[in-house]
Amino acid sequence: MKIRFIHCFLLFYLSLALGTGCTTPDTINHLPSEDGTEIVLEDYRLIEDETWEPEKTYIVHGSLEIPKDITLNISPGTTVKFGREARITVQGILKIGTPLTQEQVTQLVHLTSDNIGPAPGDWNGIFFDHTHDLESFIRGAVIQYATIALDIKTTSPTIAECTLRLNETGIALDGSDAHIYHNDILDNNTGISTIGRQTLPRIQKNKITKNETGIFSENVQSIIQHNNLNANVFALRLNVKFDFTIPNNWWGSADPIEIMDTIIDGGDPGLIAKQIGTVLYEPFVDAEIADAGFPYPTLLAELPR
Question: Sorting pLDDT into bands at 50, 70 and 90, what band is 7?
Fold first, then answer.
């Protein structure tokens, strides 16, 4: 009995000694590097509004939580790196990059993997968690190597003048009226995925190219116009039984037969396993839309090809 008591006593004091180094979901770790140029955040939950500045690089491990009624502002020129399976969860307000009221983007925000050999799916992306928020925006950001770069559920941020590349999915919309315009969405497995019949996302003036699937659609209310949808393996995959009208886009060809070859719908019974509607793509644009996509290509000059 005495030995057991001593053993428990030692374990108790050992746990106190080590306790300051333990991490729980409620622990806030905000650790600057020795020179102050890097801020490492591990399972970090904001407790007040914050603004991140371009003079520092922020490295996120685990979860970064933005609670209700809290705002995170990531300034133009800032770099944020994410460890394996890291994620931002937004229940408050997230403002990334150049304000929508400013005339043009002059500096980019970089959201990327912290791994030495980065690859799609390294980090989990940004999750807008049923916030019903209209104030959040992302403008002038490069987002890459995520599982779902922007996973937007029941909220409607503006996504403008960004580049989403080398992600498993660039943007996933579920019950969202988000406005998505003038973005480059390229080299992803899926560029944009939409579900939720009662919402009306607007996807306009984007360059959605070089993806395995440009748009995977289960929301036929979406407004998808004036986009370049060329050079994807499949430009659009329809996955509901309703017809989908999607006019005034460039599909990489002015030949209707070639356009249909880039679309998966009810006309492709060998490629689908359930009843699917038809994509109504006419009238279509017969040449590339010059002003679709990211409007400041010189800012992307240093990105690896």
Answer: very low
pTM: 0.88
Q: How many CB atoms lie within 10 A of CB 12?
A: 10
Question: Which residues partner with 257 through β-bridges?
Answer: none
CB under 8 Å to 83, separation ≥6 — which residues?
A: 59, 60, 61, 62, 114, 115, 123
DSSP one-letter string for 130-193: S---SS-EEESEEEESBSEEEEEES---EEES-EEES-SEEEEEES---EEES-EEESSSEEEE
pLDDT digits 0-9 by tens, 207-228 = 999 999 999 999 999 999 999 9
Q: What is the distance between the alpha carbons of residues 100 and 202, in angstroms, rounded to a whole number?
A: 16
**Strand-strand pairing, 29-32 and 38-45:** antiparallel
User: Which residue has 């996933």 as its token pair?
Assistant: 172
Long-range contacts of range 162-169, CB-CB < 8 Å, 24 or more positions apart?
Answer: 162/97, 162/138, 162/294, 163/294, 163/300, 163/303, 164/188, 164/191, 165/303, 166/118, 166/119, 166/120, 167/120, 167/121, 167/125, 167/143, 168/120, 168/121, 169/193
- Provide the 10 A C-beta neighbour count for residue 43: 18
For residue 113 the two structure tokens come to: 């993997």
For the chain, the 3-state helix, strand and coil shares in percent, each to the nearest 5, are 10, 40, 50
As a whole number of angstroms, the distance between CA 132 and CA 138 comes to 16
- Cα 150 to Cα 35, 91, 125, 223: the distances in Å are 32, 14, 6, 19
H-only helix segments in the chain: 2-19, 256-261
The predicted pLDDT at position 131 comes to 83
Contact present, 42 and 62 (Cβ < 8 Å): yes
